[in-house]
Design brief:
With about 90 residues, this protein is α+β, with helices and mostly antiparallel strands. The strands form two sheets. The protein has a two-stranded antiparallel sheet with strand order 1-2. The chain has a two-stranded antiparallel sheet with strand order 3-4.
């Protein structure tokens, strides 16, 4: 955006995309709170209340080269994004 005294605010670019951490809130979100569900609700004109930090428990995510979903004992759940043989071992 830029501000001009004559035209006011001008938008030059809108970069609408999901970032690299998108899968984490998709898997950890409570029903009805995934990004696609929230976008659909807002598109229907519904008001979406803030719910930051309100995720299913106990789920922990970590990142190294690829994303893994871990259970409450911090063990992989098997819902990895890549197919076997799986990600490279951490160094």
């Amino acid at each position: 955006m830029f501000r001009d005294k004559q035209i006011g605010l001008g938008i030059t670019d809108v970069n609408t995309r999901f970032g690299g951490a998108f899968p984490a809130p998709m898997y950890a979100a409570k029903p009805g709170h995934t990004y696609p569900e929230l976008i659909a609700r807002m598109a229907r004109g519904e008001t979406v209340e803030p719910h930051g930090g309100d995720f299913r428990a106990p789920i922990t995510f970590t990142r190294y080269f690829v994303q893994l979903e871990l259970d409450e004992q911090l063990q992989p759940t098997g819902r990895d994004i890549i197919q076997p043989p799986g990600p490279p071992a951490p160094r």
